[in-house]
Design brief:
Low-confidence stretches: none
Bound molecules: zinc ion
Oligomer: single chain
Strand content: 5-15%
Strand order of the largest sheet: 1-2-3
Number of strands: 13
């Protein structure tokens, strides 16, 4: 744990060790063309930035939102009519739901809010603003001047012939599109290009004012130089042979004369039962939603896994309690099993005092010392139980009247068993003692434990199975249990 309060994983220390002296600029870039789910990329960058900070390096940590990128696909949930905006910058396409300033902002803002909620020390930069502010002016001039070399690199990497009039720069046409124009002339003194579009209209674009952008493969290398990037993580699709890092590396070395930034390649995250996360297919988990069921550092741990270079399958559904228990064991944050917390949260609703009492009875005194934290943890557990938990984990204590009706439907052996348990239960009994009592009472009366426990679950929860009965019952007020069992 460093000054940031965020644990720095070992792999990130190693990556930072290989980066040399700063000052450092750590960058991660994502296009807000749909729901942004790629938290793994940002967290890889954050971990390395924090590892550098721990070594007292000067670090600028940047999220480069590719807001000037053209719309190429209509995101799931967006009306098909948005195809009319294909080729237009995301920052200039309207918000499909009308709630933000643009299409880009609609997807970017919720992600940005999640980063803030995680207390991430990151600068969110919008690429259309960088172009408008002239940050890309020099590298754009350089790129246009070296059009032939850039073209050769792309041809060699892709093995495909590039169009004859290919240009690294995409001027914005009067129609607003960044596609379909041919650059005719470069006027470096005026930082502009003269172009003709598909319809034969001629125009000029001033590249110091954001009137166009670099093509994305060139922009990647140009961005390193424009921002002084020293580290950037990449998903493995970018680092394949002929991929965008291959071309960007050559462009950086041969054209921009800029050293290739350090890099860490990360593997994909898939969702249990749904395949790889992909915003274009709607297979996504949004950071904002995940922050509703766990604290930021647990989310960091979940998304990064043990090493982000390894593929990871997320299961925030049935597998979530186990994940939280492992996380809590590693951090020493809490000793209450998550399943039990979910049970307490569901039984006591929003009554934190009642929840604290139930936890104390269950033997989890420590968890009740910080009421604010307890309230927070209970709300995570309640949200999980309400929206993510499998049916078997969703429970609610039956009202006494409902319990009596259920108990009336049990056979005599089961009813007598419950009455016997009610008589023997004591106020000081812990979870294990109650569990022993439930079991030994059944055996003593010649009742099969399976039928005995079914009677317990049915009477309390209206189900034939449920959480560990001993801890659950020990957590409930004794009178509540007696009222239901001795009916
Ligand atoms: Zn919106």
């Amino acid at each position: 744990m460093g000054d940031t309060g965020i644990p720095v994983p070992l792999w990130a220390e190693k990556v930072a060790d290989g980066l040399g002296r700063g000052p450092h600029v750590v960058v991660t870039g994502i296009s807000p063309s749909g729901n942004i789910h790629n938290l793994r990329e940002v967290l890889v960058a954050e971990a390395v930035a924090n590892a550098l900070k721990n070594r007292d390096e000067e670090v600028r940590f940047v999220f480069h939102a590719d807001t000037i990128d053209p719309l190429r696909k209509v995101a799931p949930g967006v009306p098909a009519s948005f195809r009319e905006f294909f080729g237009h910058s995301l920052s200039r396409v309207p918000d499909p739901e009308g709630c933000h300033a643009s299409y880009a902002e609609h997807f970017l803002i919720p992600f940005e809010e999640a980063l803030h909620e995680m207390d991430m020390d990151i600068e969110v930069l919008r690429s259309h603003e960088l172009y408008e502010a002239g940050v890309y002016t020099d590298v754009t001039r350089e790129a246009i001047e070296h059009t032939a070399e850039l073209r050769d690199i792309l041809q060699e990497a892709s093995g495909r012939e590039m169009p004859e009039h290919w240009s690294p720069y995409l001027p914005r046409r009067t129609s607003g599109q960044l596609t379909g124009a041919r650059v005719l002339e470069h006027l470096p003194g005026e930082h502009s290009v003269v172009f003709v579009d598909e319809d034969g209209f001629e125009g000029a674009a001033d590249y110091s004012k954001g009137e166009g952008k670099l093509g994305w493969r060139v922009e990647l290398a140009a961005r390193w130089k424009a921002l002084g990037v020293t580290f950037e993580p990449f998903g493995k699709d970018h680092t394949s042979r002929g991929g965008s890092t291959d071309t960007a590396d050559r462009m950086a070395r041969e054209v921009f004369h800029y050293p290739i930034p350090g890099r860490h390649e990360y593997e994909w995250i898939s969702l249990k039962g749904q395949g790889p996360m992909a915003s274009s297919k709607g297979v996504v988990l949004l950071p904002k939603d995940l922050l509703g069921i766990m604290p930021p550092n647990a989310l960091r741990r979940m998304m990064l896994g043990r090493d982000p270079a390894r593929a990871l399958e997320l299961d925030p559904w049935e597998g979530f309690p186990r994940f939280m228990d492992e996380f809590n064991a590693e951090t020493g944050d809490s000793e209450v099993p998550f399943n039990h917390l979910a049970l307490v949260a569901q039984t006591t609703g929003e009554d934190v005092e009642a929840a604290a009492t139930m936890l104390r009875r269950g033997g989890y005194e420590d968890a009740t010392r910080d009421p604010e934290r307890l309230a927070r943890d209970l709300s995570y557990a309640r949200n999980w139980a309400g929206e993510w938990a499998p049916e078997s984990m969703r429970i609610g204590l039956l009202e006494p009247e409902e319990s009596r009706q259920v108990a009336a439907g049990l056979d005599e052996e089961q009813r007598d068993y419950l009455a016997a348990v009610a008589e023997t239960l004591g106020p000081e009994m812990g979870g294990d003692e109650v569990q022993d009592l439930l079991y030994s009472t059944a055996v003593g009366r010649g009742l099969k434990p399976k039928r005995a426990f079914a009677a317990v679950y049915k009477t309390l929860l209206g189900k034939t199975s449920g959480p560990k009965a001993g801890a659950f019952i020990a957590g409930l007020p004794l009178e509540e249990v007696r009222r239901r069992f001795s009916a």
